[in-house]
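For reproducibility, we list the full input for the adenosine-5'-triphosphate complex.
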Amino acid sequence: SKKRGFVELDRVSKIYGNKDVKIVAVDEISFSIDKGEFVVIVGPSGAGKTTVLNILGGMDQASGGSVWVDGEDIAKYNSRQLTQYRREDIGFVFQFYNLVPNLTALENVELALQICKDPLDARQVLREVGLRERMKNFPAQLSGGEQQRVSIARALAKNPKLLLCDEPTGALDYQTGKAILKLLQDMCRERGMTVIVITHNSALTPMADKVIRIKNGTVSSMELNEKPIPVENIEW
Ligand code: ATP
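The corresponding predicted structure, in tokenized form, follows.
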């Protein structure tokens, strides 16, 4: 059979609506990502970026096409398989952290690990993201950047195949956002983890190994950076 990318979307579509109204959110998109790549998906509002990420993460189902992840077409999964995939194989990082407010940082990470097959040590991962002293704090006692670090620890502790980040700096100031992107880039390099980051900001594209530009639900252009720039060296 054909050699597939670690992640490979093959003519994936997503159509919302009913018989009268059709919204084509994703329009036969195809792209491929290697294991360990740091990928930036960029494009205007409404282009379909979040829909693509949600399909890749098993949070939404494609209307058509194939979604290959590590040799499996998850577009063919039933809902039970998709739930297991989402729990065990995918780490999500969102713009607004989505922490449980009445649990500490440590408890937020441990909660996510209860439904996971092969978790890492929650305390160890919290130390790695720089929260050694903050584990017993509740989300409201943490800054935005610290809360995002908890959410990254929660995702990383699952030891996922894919780390999917939807506008992870969207709610943060410039310096804090930069530190978060540096953390994501470091995690990609140190662990050889495949990381995909959605952003509106095209000034960030030099940090990526691969840039996928999405417009009107499909790829408008793609570029490879042979020498991606460390986040801390980018000004935007
Ligand atoms: P943004 O940068 O604003 O988040 P995006 O590139 O992530 O935009 P999507 O959120 O994927 O774009 O949306 C793509 C298109 O699909 C938009 O026209 C949006 O209105 C539409 N859409 C997304 N989700 C739904 C839904 N559940 N029902 C109907 N239309 C939807």
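The mean pLDDT is 95. The longest strand covers residues 22-33. Both points were considered when choosing residues for closer inspection.
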